[in-house]
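Retry 2 of 3 after timeout on previous attempt. Resubmitting structure tokens to design endpoint.
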């Protein structure tokens, strides 16, 4: 019934790869601006950016043998210099996110089964929760700034409230198998034709949209094929991108740009039954090898209004590709010489940067306008 309901969609989903060449109409270009060595022995994993504080935080292992564990290194974007290291976890940090309202509050989760809340201004711990299994992902509830979600190695999504220190207020079982590798929250929008707000959840083998309300949780399995590695949400278009590593069926990595739709599968008005499904807008092809669970990013172009870019690492060529979602063209390939594991768009000092994180360092590329 769902396939029949979506069969008449007039949105095409071409598969576009780097082999089609780079667009010649691109009026902007990324150039290397600076690079910072973070961990000389490797071990960096994720980044998070706080525009209000002009700060980037990078997860890394401790560089002092007397104090083992993992923490975050602060980078001041006003002068792009690394600052203090904050110890947080005893094992690798898998994900982190800044609170959307309390700008100095950083949420981190790690393989030590701990959830930590840290004030990055005074470097002090604010709160801590313990889960029953290692934690892989996290995100804040954009509609309720005190609530956040964490994804576990066992596939459970745990919902917490910073005001309730007893433990999770909800435990959500999501369709599929494997750990929860990535999550992002889509805010509620009171538009008649808009899909309601909720949580996008990617496990290794499945992708779901979870409708979350006070006393109601509804898991909608999306008809997308994995294995999945990351999710990214772009708020101006309400589109999201889910990335998939190569498999036997699909020899190339894939990056699917999608929109959520409410689909009526009721046979009559009396049984007005709606479910949420994903409509694929574009499919971009990556490389043929991927050993690292790298994170891709769907961002609004900082210099071209209305343009959306899909940014993804290509492990087989040690490069990062930027595609224009509207035209499907590859607008630039950035050679990095190392495998990029996380990508962030940053705006600081009236300039726009793309930060590329590798195992040992972070490289900052600046957007510049080309002379005609």
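Retry 2 succeeded. Sequence:
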């Amino acid at each position: 019934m769902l396939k029949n309901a979506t069969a008449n969609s007039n949105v095409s989903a071409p598969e576009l790869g780097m082999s089609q060449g780079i667009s010649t109409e691109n009026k902007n270009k990324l150039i290397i601006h600076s690079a910072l060595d973070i961990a000389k022995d490797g071990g960096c994993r994720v980044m998070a950016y706080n525009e209000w504080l002009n700060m980037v935080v990078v997860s890394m292992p401790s560089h002092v043998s007397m104090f083992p564990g993992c923490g975050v290194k602060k980078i001041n974007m006003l002068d792009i210099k690394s600052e203090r290291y904050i110890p947080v976890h005893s094992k690798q940090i898998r994900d982190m996110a800044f609170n959307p309202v309390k700008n100095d509050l950083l949420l981190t989760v790690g393989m030590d089964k701990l959830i930590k809340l840290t004030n990055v201004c005074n470097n002090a711990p604010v709160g801590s929760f313990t889960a029953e299994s290692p934690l892989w992902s996290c995100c804040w509830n954009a509609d309720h700034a005190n609530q956040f979600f964490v994804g576990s190695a066992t596939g459970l999504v745990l919902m917490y409230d910073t005001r309730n220190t007893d433990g999770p207020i909800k435990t959500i079982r999501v369709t599929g198998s494997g750990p929860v590798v990535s999550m992002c929250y889509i805010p509620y929008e009171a538009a008649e034709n808009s899909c309601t707000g909720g949580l996008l959840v990617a496990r290794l083998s499945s992708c779901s949209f979870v409708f979350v309300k006070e006393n109601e949780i509804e898991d909608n399995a999306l008809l997308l094929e994995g294995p999945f590695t990351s999710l990214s949400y772009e708020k101006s278009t309400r589109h999201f991108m889910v990335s998939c590593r190569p498999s036997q069926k699909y020899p190339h990595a894939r990056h699917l740009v999608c929109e959520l739709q409410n689909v009526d599968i009721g046979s009559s008005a009396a049984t007005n039954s709606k479910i949420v499904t994903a409509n694929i807008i574009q499919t971009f092809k990556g490389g043929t090898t991927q050993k690292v669970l790298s994170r891709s990013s769907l961002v609004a172009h900082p210099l071209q209004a209305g343009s959306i870019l899909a940014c993804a690492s290509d492990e087989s060529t040690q490069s990062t590709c930027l595609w224009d979602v509207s035209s499907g063209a590859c607008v630039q390939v950035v050679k990095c010489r190392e495998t990029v594991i996380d990508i962030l768009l940053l705006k600081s000092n009236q300039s726009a940067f793309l930060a590329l994180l590798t195992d040992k360092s972070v490289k900052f590329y600046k957007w510049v306008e080309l002379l005609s």
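Attempt log closed. Residues 8-24 have pLDDT under 50 and may be disordered.
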